Amino acid sequence: MTRLEEVLAEAAKLVEPTEPERSRVSEVAVKLLSACRQEFLGREGVVDVTIEGSVAKDTWVRGREEVDVFVHFTPSAGRERLESTILSLGPRVIAGMGGRHWLRYASHPYVEGAVEGIRVNIVGCFKTEHGRWISAVDRTHHHTEFVRSQITPQLRRDIRLFKGFLMGCGLYGAEIRVEGFSGYLSELLVISHGGFVELLKSASKWRIPAFVDLTGKVRREDALRLFPNAALIFPDPVDPSRNVAAAVSKTRLAELILASKLFLRDPSIEYFMPEAVKPCQGEEWRGTHELFGVIFRVEERPPDILWGEIKHTMKGVSRRLVKEGFQVYRAAAAQSGDEVLLLFELSSLSLPPLELRIGPPVWMDNAIDFARKTLTREDRAAGPWVEGERLYALFRRKHVNVDELLREWIGRGEVAISRELVDSLREAEILTSRSGLIDRIRQNEGFRIFLKNFLDGAATPIRHLAKRC
Amino acid sequence: MTRLEEVLAEAAKLVEPTEPERSRVSEVAVKLLSACRQEFLGREGVVDVTIEGSVAKDTWVRGREEVDVFVHFTPSAGRERLESTILSLGPRVIAGMGGRHWLRYASHPYVEGAVEGIRVNIVGCFKTEHGRWISAVDRTHHHTEFVRSQITPQLRRDIRLFKGFLMGCGLYGAEIRVEGFSGYLSELLVISHGGFVELLKSASKWRIPAFVDLTGKVRREDALRLFPNAALIFPDPVDPSRNVAAAVSKTRLAELILASKLFLRDPSIEYFMPEAVKPCQGEEWRGTHELFGVIFRVEERPPDILWGEIKHTMKGVSRRLVKEGFQVYRAAAAQSGDEVLLLFELSSLSLPPLELRIGPPVWMDNAIDFARKTLTREDRAAGPWVEGERLYALFRRKHVNVDELLREWIGRGEVAISRELVDSLREAEILTSRSGLIDRIRQNEGFRIFLKNFLDGAATPIRHLAKRC
Q1: How many distinct structural domains can be found in chain B?
Q2: Which of A70, A189, A232, A396 is most exposed by smallest CB count within 10 Å?
Q3: Is residue B170 domain-shared with residue B260, that is, in the same domain?
Q4: What is the pTM of this model?
Q5: Nearest C-alpha of chain B: how many angstroms from A417?
């Protein structure tokens, strides 16, 4: 047995559900299906109730079981009826089984809950003609059917390996927080390559944008035109006009390419094991990281909505910092409880005392205005002079510290922050001292782990490599 | 009389030589010509001796008189005979007139000196067929003839005004130190536009590259192809394949455009008056300029050679600083006596403690090498992480101060310095503290004036504007 085969055999044990887990899942699935049928069938517009997702396909990873029940409505029922039916009856079903439910997603109506310790979702969809999809989840049943029609026992094992690999490398999940690989995309990738190792061999040679087509009908050039911003393009076999990999960011795809290379070169079980990171104690902060943190409270909201806002705000702050002259080495965000932490590493937490202002070329009409205004300004430090065809001048800055500047921008609306977070940001704590940041972060276990990872800064696949260096 | 006419009338008094000056110049010119004829005519290869330059054309600016005598050799005499004849007999002529001589230029053989307080040059050239030029100054006699054939009393006045304007704005002179407008170019510009005001009106609307043609035979597109890097193109009427304005830098041309706009908008005599800048006392250094100076000794050399080296070195240091991560706001050089000062203004005199290193894209073969090497380096501060398709990492810097770094680069030959200045640079003083710089610069009057100008930082034409703000 080669080293690779040994590792895969070991990994298979990590990702294959145990027999007790299988029975527990199937018992809950059967009971939930039957309870849903009882509750929904016969209601106006409801035409079917089915099990979908990884349980229906038998592709879930050990310990990650999740039962999805889909309630199918006839298109004429309309969105409102679908929504009201799901949101009123879904919780009742879960409660009737002694479970609890906690989230009603706003973007698409579904109910999330737990029954006997297993995550369950009750989702409403329309049973439409092929291609005449109404809601975002109307294709799901066809996805299930497609995967079932293609799968073999070997592929099933390899799908679980690939999902486990993605989890171990921090790449699993299409949610906005992760921007990684969905379950369905993982299944299609393994199916299209005929196996886990074949997929990794191929992925290790990808360039971005990458293109994989299972239908054999889509040309690469057409796909690139159709999805110009996608890092990875995988036309949905159920609907080739849709990119299954739309949620995958360039960074996550690059991390998969890197992880594939690293794993194939030196296979190791660690790539299948999500790290247990110890919370930051403070002493990991060696040397001279110039970090500043922004901590604010948020109200409970569907994660994809909240994370859309968080990422938009983080990018907005970064862009504003760069525009002002800061060099932003990196930025990251964490959510823990009702608190969000944005963490930025800069080359320096303060700007130089003087600012270089680039004026117009001398041949522009406003060149003389620029010269005249500069000369009369109190904060002029030098200039204007001519260099090449342009005017330049140096001005004294009023504020140089990042925290003062950020406060000012937020107060004046001069930084792109999600509208929903503006109030939170106005109240935010802005921490720039090492001791201040560490003391504050100590109060939140989730942030301590996040800070530890941030300080180390290595991508997850590279941390696996580090252990073997 | 309009304001413009008043100013021009006043300026004319500044630039027109007085009668006593005219007689003095003519007397020296006649005596020098006759002495040169006596000494050179009859020597092997010598065919003629003439007066050239601004005295021959009667276009010199008051107080800037300079008598140029050209000794014409037949082409068959050869460069060596020309050189040896000029360098041996030229000084003898000047000495015979009770004058003194001080420089023998290496690039082209000529003798510079002073007779009765007037600068004189004795230059050797070849009398060739038109277009079959051998040395760089063989066209000069034809230039003189051309200007004489075109000039009128009004143009003569306007040429003097334009030269005075260039001098008052720091733009006169084709030497490498200035990179401005030669006397011949100034004459052609006025002739081609029919006058000083007409020229300024046109210049105030120029875009760079600018193109002026007196021959009417050169098309703009052809000129741009022929002189792709020129800021200003003026085909020589004596030889249209040569650009008379080749020495004019983009910055100097832009300053002329700006000065023309400023002067026409608000005419003032100051534009014709070179400033008398008071030396820096120290208190002009307000606020927080982050300056560093490099002072080194140089041996006496023809200015164009020395200044070529100085500028090359200054640019080399700037480029190296930028490459290392410094932001160079501006750089300038001064020579005073046998000392040269390079002065740089940076956003900061030290680099951030950590350095962002941009690694390869993950799909490159060396991506794993980069990751592996980074992980094992002692100066790793964070990473490598993936952002987009590339790897990044943060490293601790060993040196952060500009003076230590520059010393190191000079020592290791890691900065582009003119070969002839390497030894001087190794011995250079590198001054970074405000008090250190001011104390050192106090010792050299030329540097004190230069520093004062540098701190103010306004281009000369803009300083004229400042007085009127």
Answers
A1: 4
A2: A396
A3: yes
A4: 0.81
A5: 22
